[in-house]
Amino acid sequence: WVLITLLTLLINTHDMKKVWVIGGTFLFVSGAVYYLFIAAWLNVFLMIGYNFWVQKIIGIVAIGGGGFYLYEAFGKNPNQCKVTNMGARQRTIARMKEIMQISQWPAMIIGVAILAVSVNMIELVCTAGLPAVFTQILAFNDITDLARYGYIGLFILMYMIDDMVIFGIAIYTLHATGITTKYRRVTLIFGGLLMYALGLLLI
Fold first, then answer.
1. Among residues 106, 94, 98, 122, which one has the least CA distance to residue 30?
2. Cβ distance 25 to 109 under 8 Å?
3. Which of its termini does the chain have fewer beta carbons within 10 Å around, N or C?
């Protein structure tokens, strides 16, 4: 919802340079924040080393995460992360409007980068389950560090692909549109079942 709102504000400026630079910066920083978050998870597991009980605990967490995803899928609106309330959303939108008023490009880019970091740090809670399982599996398999970080890069690419599609549509049509509720519900159901399967395998 942050990306869609930001793109709507950018498109209304009728400045395609702003759409490309500010929208692109938001996407890039969002991906970078998530990459660092997953890399931190990986290093925690590498530091702990292989531990029988840690694996079982992560398996239980995965099953709990799968249950949460399924609960979200069959809720009233699967597109919303329940971490942020309406007041927080309104403050975020106000910050976006302030960024749009900045005339200097460096300050505008820094402003949207800070926005991307703050938003993603808050909403990481909604998607923390799968990275925990993913990095635990990466840590406990005998592959090189380069391969591990490469797999994290692939994970980020898949994680960000719907945002990139939304951005591409906005650039092409000059209209910001979101992923449909039906699509989001299907992905949550798939994610929930995947988490259940991984959790059972880890246990």
1. 122
2. yes
3. C
Rounded CA-CA distance 32/46 in Å is 21
Q: How far apart are CA 197 and CA 192, in angstroms?
A: 9
Q: Residue 35 pLDDT more than 80? A: yes
How far, in whole angstroms, is CA 59 from its chain's centroid?
22
Residue 176: count other Cβ atoms within 10 Å of its Cβ: 21
pLDDT, tens digit, 9 for 90 and up, residues 142-152: 899 999 999 99
Evaluate the CA torsion angle 120, 118, 82, 89 in order and state its sign.
negative
Kindly report the pTM of this predicted structure: 0.77
Q: Which residue has the tokens 């945002």?
A: 163
Amino acid symbol at 166: I
CA nearest to 127, candidates 48, 203, 198, 66 = 66
**Does residue 123 contact residue 58 with C-beta atoms inside 8 Å?**
no
Gap between the Cα atoms of 132 and 191, Å rounded: 14
Residue 148 near residue 42 (C-beta atoms within 8 A)? yes
CA-based radius of gyration for the chain: 18
